[in-house]
Amino acid sequence: MRKSNTQNISELLLNYIDEMNIERKLKEVDIIHAWEEVLGKTIHRYTGKIYITRGVLNVQIFSPVVKSELIMMREEIRVRLNEKAGREIITEIRFL
């Protein structure tokens, strides 16, 4: 009789993520997807490209008025997005 070497799929995936060091990248993707949830549909309508480079969240905003408001709320937004990710991923936000 052979020994069974079964493992839980979630355990295998977590081990793979740890071994490949991709947890940070997955958290970055979560932050980008959380933008609408955190800031709402109205702000999301004025948002273009969103990407993260070396801990800096770059967000394209189409309205100068919305951009001004977001600049004033930049730190609060950064904190809320990092809370959503569960750890410090974003160090700065730039509005383009």
What are the SSEs and their pairings?
Layout: H1 9-20, H2 23-45, E1 47-53, E2 56-61, H3 64-72, H4 74-85, E3 92-95
Parallel strand pairs: 2-3
Antiparallel strand pairs: 1-2
Helix pairs in contact: 2-4
Entry keywords:
96 residues; Alpha-Beta Plaits; 3-stranded mixed sheet; 18% strand
Strand content: 15-25%
Count of discrete structural domains: 1
Number of strands: 3
pLDDT < 50 runs, ≥5 residues = none
Label the overall shape.
elongated
Strand order of the largest sheet: 1-2-3
Give an overview of the whole structure.
It is a single chain. The N and C termini lie far apart (64 Å). Helix 2 packs across helix 4. Helix content is 58%, strand content 18%. The protein has 96 residues and is of the alpha+beta class. The protein has one domain: Alpha-Beta Plaits (2-Layer Sandwich), CATH 3.30.70. Strand 1 and strand 2 form a beta hairpin.
Structure at a glance:
The protein is of the alpha+beta class. It has helices at residues 9-20, 23-45, 64-72, 74-85, and strands at residues 47-53, 56-61, 92-95. It has a 3-stranded mixed beta sheet with strand order 1-2-3.
